Amino acid sequence: MLSNKDTVKAIEVMGEKFPDARTSLKADTDFHFLLAVILSAQTTDKAVNLLTPRLFARYPLPEDLAAANLEEVIPFLRSIGLYRNKGKYIIACAADIVAKFNGQVPQTRRELMQLSGVGRKTADVVLAECFNIPTIAVDTHVTRVSKRLHIVPQKADVLTIEKILMKKLPEDLWIKAHHCMIFWGRYQCMARKPLCEECPLLLMCAEGQKRVL
Ligand code: SF4
């Protein structure tokens, strides 16, 4: 298992390779960012960014979207998968924000997770991006990279991965680590063909050494 010190080192190396690692979702308000994160499930940020300008212009505030019906909203979402369900979630989420939080996106995980369509990962992303509250949202890239580098046990579930990362990394690295690991998973340590031979982490990566040798 990778030590705490080497885990920090690995994140630093990732940060050197991808100094601009940050969210690619575009939004002008906390509410719109939350919608973008909900819409990004099982699709790319790029696909979400293509549709959100029209959606956001039509529904600037939670009150506007809460008052919409699904058939009105669906045409804005048709270009992404699961658009009907996502449409239901974002309308219900907006209604929850209006009814329970006075029209403001809440700033705690517990409250965020009371909103329709918001699970722990979405809540963590919103806390970090909108409110600069340290979290490590664990997605498919963070999971794969953590396991390949043996930062976590191979059978660790998402919650365990989050806890181990939070233990091994200082709090001021959590948000950066999330972004760096996503970029690492997208562009260096891809699911099918990781670039192990030219990987600066090869010497500390048991999985990479297995693949190269
Ligand atoms: Fe991923 Fe390969 Fe680098 Fe390990 S050596 S982190 S498996 S790309």
Automatic annotation (TrEMBL):
Q: Which UniProt keywords apply?
A: 4Fe-4S, DNA damage, DNA repair, DNA-binding, Endonuclease, Glycosidase, Hydrolase, Iron, Iron-sulfur, Lyase, Metal-binding, Nuclease
Does the record carry Repeat as a key word?
no
Q: Which SMART domains does the annotation name?
A: ENDO3c, FES
What is the cofactor note? Binds 1 [4Fe-4S] cluster.
The question of whether Nucleus is a record keyword is answered with no
Q: Which reaction does it catalyse?
A: 2'-deoxyribonucleotide-(2'-deoxyribose 5'-phosphate)-2'-deoxyribonucleotide-DNA = a 3'-end 2'-deoxyribonucleotide-(2,3-dehydro-2,3-deoxyribose 5'-phosphate)-DNA + a 5'-end 5'-phospho-2'-deoxyribonucleoside-DNA + H(+)
Required cofactors, per record?
[4Fe-4S] cluster
For this UniProt entry, the molecular function terms from Gene Ontology, in alphabetical order, are: 4 iron, 4 sulfur cluster binding; class I DNA-(apurinic or apyrimidinic site) endonuclease activity; DNA binding; DNA N-glycosylase activity; metal ion binding
Q: What is its EC number?
A: 4.2.99.18
Q: Which SUPFAM superfamilies match?
A: DNA-glycosylase (SSF48150)
The record's Pfam families line, in alphabetical order, gives:
EndIII_4Fe-2S, HHH, HhH-GPD
Protein's GO biological process: base-excision repair, AP site formation
Q: Where is the HhH-GPD domain?
A: 39-187
Quote the record's binding site residues for [4Fe-4S] cluster. 189, 196, 199, 205
Which domain of life does the protein's organism represent?
Bacteria
HAMAP family assigned: Nth (MF_00942)
Q: What function does the entry list?
A: DNA repair enzyme that has both DNA N-glycosylase activity and AP-lyase activity. The DNA N-glycosylase activity releases various damaged pyrimidines from DNA by cleaving the N-glycosidic bond, leaving an AP (apurinic/apyrimidinic) site. The AP-lyase activity cleaves the phosphodiester bond 3' to the AP site by a beta-elimination, leaving a 3'-terminal unsaturated sugar and a product with a terminal 5'-phosphate.
Q: Which family, according to UniProt?
A: Belongs to the Nth/MutY family.
- Full protein name: Endonuclease III
What species is given as this protein's source? Liquorilactobacillus aquaticus DSM 21051
Chain's gene name: nth
